[in-house]
Amino acid sequence: MKSTILLLLFVESTTAFIVSPNTIRQSVSLRKKYEDMDEEEKAVALEKATKAMTAFTNKYLENTCTKLCSDKSVPAVVIKGLAEHKLTLGAPLCPCRFYDDKEAEAKDGYWNCPCVPMRERHECHCMLFLTEDNAFVGEETSITYEEVIEGSNIQF
To answer: Which residues form the signal peptide (predicted)?
Structure first.
């Protein structure tokens, strides 16, 4: 008797899971690449990524007892850059540094937010996560999506 393999395709948001009888699961990406999107799709993707990076920032501020820069346009621009890198590189690569090869740096992970210096020593080159002893620290421990849009001049 021939053995047949039953494949079931479950679609949840942008990921599909292929399930075999042995319950081996493989993730298959159905997401369109950023460079293949039209302008409307890019705007929607950037909005979604910006909201996600804003939520990440707020949670990380809470978890690390750090604060935002007193000038909220600084974290707004950084969050925008992280969101753009998340879309174009697949990782939230620090937008405040120069890289000879952004793709290689994103794969390496050292400068992906939160970067190694932030995780190990609470040192954020971008001034997104500031400790009390930083001269530019403000009182705010969160930022809204609307503040990110306003502070970074994102156009959707």
So the answer is: 1-16
Q: How far is CA 147 from CA 63, 125, 129, 156, in A?
A: 21, 21, 16, 14
- Residue 26: beta bridge partners? 18
Task: Note if the pTM is more than 0.70.
Answer: yes
Which of 96, 113, 124, 126 is catalytic? The answer is: 96
> What does the buried/exposed string (b/e) look like for 110-137 if buried means 16 or more CB atoms within 10 Å of the residue's CB?
ebbbbbeebeeebebebbbbbeeebeeb
In three-state secondary structure terms, 45 is helix
Each residue's pLDDT tens digit, 4-57? 444 333 333 344 444 444 443 333 344 578 888 889 999 999 999 999 999 999
* 96 labelled catalytic: yes
